[in-house]
Amino acid sequence: ISITAPGDGDTVEPGFDVQVEPTVDVGEPDTGLHHVHLYYDGNTSDGEYDIVYSADEPWTVEQDLDPGEHTVEAVIANADHSLTDASDEITVTVGEGAGAGGDTTTTSSDDPYDY
To answer: In terms of Cα–Cα distance, which of 33, 30, 78, 32 is closest to 54?
Structure first.
């Protein structure tokens, strides 16, 4: 498996997309096909991950990652969710995101007619 986007070292915004290229067919676990688990910051044992069922379209990261540097690891999993040895890992920097640190102007006035 390889992570084809984003690139290793890229800066991304929260809710970024991950594109994977597995070496096996992937699908929903009830099909008997493999699927891909996406782990963040080395947390492969804590049970929290995103699941990718299709390599045809990017997967939008659902985890709430704080701004800063994070690792993203893609691991091919069997239909029963047991992990294989096939994996790839990248490091990305998550930015502040839209709306954070933006230019916000507010005004107030005691004049009800806003003169």
So the answer is: 33
Alpha carbon 80 to its chain centroid, in Å, reads 22
Residues facing 76 on adjacent strands: 36
The pTM of the full predicted model, rounded to 2 decimals, is: 0.80
Asked if residue 76 lies in contact with residue 34, where contact means CB atoms within 8 angstroms, the answer is yes
Q: How many CB atoms are closer than 10 A to CB 13?
A: 12
Residue 40 and residue 91 in contact, taking contact as beta carbons nearer than 8 Å = no
Q: What is the pLDDT of residues 32-61, one digit of tens each?
A: 999 999 999 998 877 789 999 999 989 999
Q: Is 38 helix (H, G, I), strand (E, B) or coil?
A: strand
- pLDDT computed for residue 46 by the predictor: 74
What's phi and psi for 105, nearest 5 deg? -115, 130
pLDDT at position 62: 85
- Residue 11 tokens read as 């800066």
